[in-house]
Amino acid sequence: MCGIAGIIYRDGGGERKVGRDMTAMLQAMKHRGPDSTGYALYRPASDGYVMHLKLLESNGHHDFELADRLRRQRSDVESRMRALGAQINDVKPATEHAMTVTFGFEGDLKELADYVEDVRGTEVLSLGKTLEIVKDLGDAKTVAADYGLEDFIGTHAIGHARMATESDVDIANAHPYWAYPFPDVAVVHNGQLTNYHQWKRRLERAGHRFQSECDSEIIAVYLAERMAQGDSLEESMRRSLDELDGVFTYICVTEDALGVAKDELGAKPLVLYESDDIVALASEEIAIRKVVDREIETYDPYEGAVMVWTR
């Protein structure tokens, strides 16, 4: 089931209330996935990096020592980042169990992320110059309110409304997925990869590690690996249709682009609207109509289609 959505603004500077718009799109598809909601939001580029971290599961065991434990975790995260040379500019507690750090850094991002994740219970959800991934339990309105996303100004975004069918209802299994350790690449997808284990082993042998058992994360890392080897986003996505087996539709985002791919069977729905100023796509047309205030004509890309837009 699940619902996926994407939006990119193409006019002018391309900066809008992308958090508000993505919330409206995902809330319109709440019936497709009420268990958790996730966003990959792209803010205007800055000189440094932004890292979003989960400190514990929101549905985990809470005891009387929780507040002290979270304070120690936050302190340990900051200490480890500074030890590797990061210049921390701002630390913002997104919720009691998540935090966002903006910082300057000239070292190895993978080394930094690995060192931070050595803090017990900590997971880096996203890292990049423009990307911030926010995901938690509940519908889009609940997550947006908890994280203050209504006022998030950005250029493009993807989102996911999840119905848990094969794994737990928790943040670890919520989408989107960052392509660890590549900055600013994320994916949401609806469907299933049948050669998931084959590709996971292959990518692990290449030195990658995964935060989940979700096949969406495989797609993200696969695409980022191809781009790191010199392929464009579109070339990487076209190649994925030959090498990733299954029934799926996925949306990928980078620092300045949004792309969608459908497998050769085209069984997973996706509706698209495109104009001079905006591109919006979602599992259902009702989601697009929440953010476009005029009469529109939408269409469903053909099976085997790959489409990419830049801002």
Low-pLDDT residue spans: none
Read across the widest sheet, the strand sequence of neighbours is 7-2-8-1-14-13
What's the Cα radius of gyration?
18 Å
Terminal residue distance: 30 Å
How many domains, in number, for the residues?
A: 2
Mean pLDDT: 90
| Helical percentage | 25-40%
CATH superfamily of the largest domain: Aminohydrolase, N-terminal nucleophile (Ntn) domain
CATH class category name of the largest domain: Alpha Beta
Q: In this structure, how is the largest beta sheet organized?
A: 6 strands, antiparallel
Label the overall shape.
globular
Structural class estimated from helices and strands: alpha+beta
Q: Helical element count?
A: 8
CATH architecture of the largest domain: 4-Layer Sandwich
Helix and strand element order:
EHEEHEEHEEHEEEHHHEEEEHE
Number of strands: 15
At CATH level 3, the topology of the largest domain is Glutamine Phosphoribosylpyrophosphate, subunit 1, domain 1
Which band does the percent of strand residues land in? 25-35%
Short description:
This protein has 311 residues and is an alpha+beta fold. Helices cover 28% and strands 30% of the residues. It folds into two domains: 3-45 and 130-310, 4-Layer Sandwich (Glutamine Phosphoribosylpyrophosphate, subunit 1, domain 1); 46-129, Histidine kinase CheA-like, P2 response regulator-binding domain (Alpha-Beta Plaits, 2-Layer Sandwich), CATH 3.30.70.1110.
